[in-house]
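Troubleshooting entry. The earlier prediction with adenine gave an output that would not parse, so I re-checked the input for stray whitespace and re-submitted. Clean input:
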Amino acid sequence: MKWGLIGAMEEEIAALLSAMTDVSSETVAGRAYYSGKLGTADVTLTQCGVGKVCAAMAAQILVDRFHVDALVNTGVAGGLAKELQVGDIVLSESALHHDFDITAFGHVRGYIGGGGDDTVPTRFYADRGLIDRFMKGAENKTGHRVLCGTVASGDVFVDDTALKIAVRDEFNATVAEMEGAAVAQVATANGVPFLIVREVSDLAENDAAGCSDNFLEKAARRSAKLLIAMVNV
Ligand code: ADE
């Protein structure tokens, strides 16, 4: 089994890259793809850049050029659900695009076209086996809460309480971030299982950018440890 691992920012992949062995790298469409081992697992890791276009490109390249069997998107996220605290880890039960808007044609926000029920936002469902595997790997390795929920992705950093509440309430969303649904959509289109793993770095309110920056490296190190455990279960 070969894993495709995607993080948006340098901090989000640094701890994973430094744990890899037998590393070789190849640049495709301007981004480096690092292939090697994490423990005994075969992986290709990339820093895709911020936002859904970058994430979609990376996901498709990992499928086409690196022949991965599963896609995992890791990083931080803004907490939306009321019970969330900074440091909680959220796994995608499903992912959707909160900024996809063709309501002008009578569809609900988040419905992306292409068939299916247009009265509800389009959701991409993560692989149950990958969720179970993450939980097994994480056992006794985190003092942090691990929850499953809806990952709402958009090309916007949510740092506004009104927007936070709108996204949370409209989509029953657990966290907001900027890549997951793109990875999920590409994975689903290719019949490849996926999982999004996000650590809550801020609560998506007015001070979110500062909070997220402060927390990024610590969160990334912790997530890396859990991902390494997961791919070696
Ligand atoms: N990533 C981390 N925090 C975020 C937020 N508040 N909005 C979008 N992406 C994020």
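This one parsed fine. The chain has a mean pLDDT of 95.
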